UniProtKB/TrEMBL annotation:
<dbReference type="InterPro" id="IPR035923">
    <property type="entry name" value="TT1751-like_sf"/>
</dbReference>
<dbReference type="InterPro" id="IPR016796">
    <property type="entry name" value="UCP021774"/>
</dbReference>
<dbReference type="Pfam" id="PF03625">
    <property type="entry name" value="DUF302"/>
</dbReference>
<dbReference type="InterPro" id="IPR005180">
    <property type="entry name" value="DUF302"/>
</dbReference>
<protein>
    <recommendedName>
        <fullName>DUF302 domain-containing protein</fullName>
    </recommendedName>
</protein>
<feature type="domain" description="DUF302">
    <location>
        <begin position="34"/>
        <end position="97"/>
    </location>
</feature>
Amino acid sequence: MPTFNVKLKDDFDTAVKRVTEALQKEKFGILNEIHVNSVLKKKLGIDMPHYLILSACSPSLAHRLISQHPDIGALFPCNVLLREEADGSTTVTFMDPAKVFGLTNNPEITPIAEEAKAQMLRVRDALQ
């Protein structure tokens, strides 16, 4: 999968706070939070550990990407998954922007996508 991750010893709520703060330091805002576990409970009656998708976006990167390829918005946003583990830890999985935006096969997108990846890697590294 086009992702990279880090496992945190933090409980889920602490991990969400730390990830959100680290994203903000890299100029990513959270557009949406999808609590998959809550949706599955409500729609299917299925209980599962916390499973949260944060839809992260850097407005400046988004603008530059859209300027190069108007349809690239179909690949937005940069998703970050937080998954509660059985031992109480939290796994954080990041979408790899370079691989996902690379689907455009547009060489003008590559440096912007690599910049987005570098920012996400800094977020991951700040959590370790």
